[in-house]
Specification:
Its cofactor is L-ascorbate. The protein is of the alpha+beta class. Helices cover 24% and strands 24% of the residues. An 8-stranded mixed β-sheet has the order 2-3-11-8-13-6-5-4. It has a 5-stranded antiparallel β-sheet with strand order 1-7-12-9-10, with no helix packed on it. Strands 16-17-18-19 form a 4-stranded antiparallel β-sheet, with helices on one face. A hairpin with a 4-residue loop joins strand 4 and strand 5 (107-117). Bound molecules: ligand L4NPZUNZ, 2-oxoglutaric acid and fe (ii) ion (FE2). The ligand C=C1C[C@]23C[C@@]1(O)CC[C@H]2[C@@]12CC[C@H](O)[C@@](C)(C(=O)O1)[C@H]2[C@@H]3C(=O)O binds next to strand 5, strand 6 and helix 8.
């Protein structure tokens, strides 16, 4: 592994330009949903919030605030210690101390962090006072994650009640814990308001759920479902825990709950400290839609093991919108996620013009549609109205379509091969339906 002699400079960390002038200014409609897990309607409230946003906060959570404050104070102490002492716990590979480099695919952010494997004492050990605080905190927050998953099962009418939570209470479950420290980023004061610096680039968490606590510094933003993925800043709340739906819960619920895209932007003046517990299943655990949620419905996902999915997720990169401005060249645009053959769900023939053939000559006129776009539209609508007016002038086009499960849980349709008749135009990867 290559170890950077010098931490990367800010100009190697991407600048985000939010689509709306003034940044991600559209607040949560009605505020972040807040759920009290001890109320009788908690199951329904959790499911409603997860369906709408893939995100909510827990109030009246019962986690002792002492444990939270103690860990936060220990974390602040650790991150304030000399760089050489912190480096002795790194580089994160994946566990340990990391500084600006995230994961192993070249992602960078304006942060330093400690990433720890909860059940694996061999993973890079933090200093003992911090370790004790982590153990106390994780013990409490793991209980909260279990209650959330029980509430999801109850709200979805899934029995037994621990159908989901047992995956993360299992002794072999893959639980990860991280403490992130985003130092203030004063250069932001010299940048236009519409720009921000990436603290942690856009992604979905691959596990079932993530439980997050942060100090009072803002920075977390979540993409709103169904609003063209508009970014909504999350107002910090020291008294609450935030829950993020991960990819595995999306698959287990056959897409009824959707994982939430999120990112963190740096703050010009105040440090942000966040502590996140990621509840994942055992590596050998099969992750597939729960039979009770299928009930005759078509499964949107091929079964995979958590181990395989995690491997694929860890090969993917964080996303961002790069902004070539003041602070120097923008970071390279992230590559498309790898189309990993292990994630191929289905492959098979499809016909573009079986019933009402489009004419590819026409389809590629300006304003016409490519073969790929035609396929997507047909698939989305499952009807052929847009083709109805066309005359039967072309032979049916048979194509090979592959459906991939992306690391973020979406399904991607890709035209792999044209079997008959060459359509003009680009063959491209298509967004999911
Ligand atoms: C860039 C990356 C960091 C990450 C592994 C990955 O290649 C893509 C997923 C990332 C993520 C996001 C949620 C958690 O913070 C994390 C520990 C995880 O399980 O997946 C991180 C990974 C990481 O920091 O190693
Ligand atoms: O630090 C935060 O607030 C969120 C970080 C995050 O999304 C992650 O570590 O996966
Ligand atoms: Fe995350």
């Amino acid at each position: 592994m290559v170890v950077l002699a010098k931490p990367p400079a800010l100009d190697q960390i991407s600048l985000l330009r939010s689509p709306e002038p003034g940044g991600a200014s559209n607040n949560f409609p009605g505020g972040v949903p807040a759920v009290d897990l001890s109320t009788p309607d908690a199951g329904q409230a959790v499911v409603d919030a997860c369906e709408r946003f893939g995100f909510f906060k827990i109030v009246n959570h019962g986690v002792p605030m002492d444990a939270v404050d103690r860990l936060e104070a220990e974390a602040v102490r650790f991150f304030a210690s000399p760089q050489a002492d912190k480096d002795a716990h790194g580089p994160a590979n994946p566990f340990g101390y990391g500084n600006k480099c995230i994961g192993s695919n070249g992602d960078m952010g304006w942060l330093e962090y400690l990433l720890l494997a909860v059940n694996n004492p061999a993973s890079a050990a933090p200093p003992s006072s911090l370790r004790d605080a982590v153990n106390e905190y994780v013990g409490a927050v793991r209980g909260l994650a279990t209650r959330v998953l029980d509430a999801v099962a109850e709200g979805l009418g899934v029995a037994p009640r621990d159908a989901l939570s047992r995956m993360v209470t299992n002794a072999a479950s893959d639980q990860v814990f991280r403490v992130n420290h985003y130092p203030p980023c004063p250069v932001l004061q010299r940048l236009p308001d519409s720009c921000s610096v990436t603290g942690f680039g856009e992604h979905t968490d691959p596990q079932l759920v993530s439980v997050l606590h942060s100090n009072g510094t803002p920075g977390l933003q979540v993409a709103l479902h169904g609003s063209g993925g508009r970014w909504a800043p999350v107002p910090p709340d020291r008294d609450a825990f935030f829950v993020l739906v991960g990819d595995s819960l999306q698959v287990l619920t056959n897409g009824r709950l959707k994982s939430v895209r999120h990112r963190v932007v740096a703050n010009s003046l105040k440090p942000r400290v966040s502590m996140i517990y990621f509840a994942g299943p055992a590596p050998a655990e099969r992750v597939a839609p729960l039979p009770q949620l299928l009930m005759g419905r078509h499964s949107e996902y091929r079964a995979f093991t958590w181990g395989d999915y995690k491997k694929a997720a860890y090969r993917s990169r964080l996303g961002d919108d790069t902004c070539p401005t003041a602070a120097g060249p923008a970071a390279p645009t992230p590559q498309a996620p790898p189309w990993d053959p292990a994630l191929l769900l289905k492959s098979g023939p499809a016909y573009i013009n079986k019933q009402r053939p489009p004419c590819f000559g026409e389809a590629h006129k300006p304003g016409g549609r490519s073969a790929a776009a035609t396929y997507t539209r047909m698939h989305r609508r499952r009807k052929y109205t847009h083709l109805a007016a066309r005359k039967k002038r072309c032979a049916p086009l048979k194509i090979e379509v592959q459906r991939y499960l992306l690391p973020d849980g979406r399904v991607l349709h890709q035209i792999a091969q044209r079997i008959k008749q060459e359509p003009k135009g680009r063959i491209e990867a298509l967004p999911s339906v």
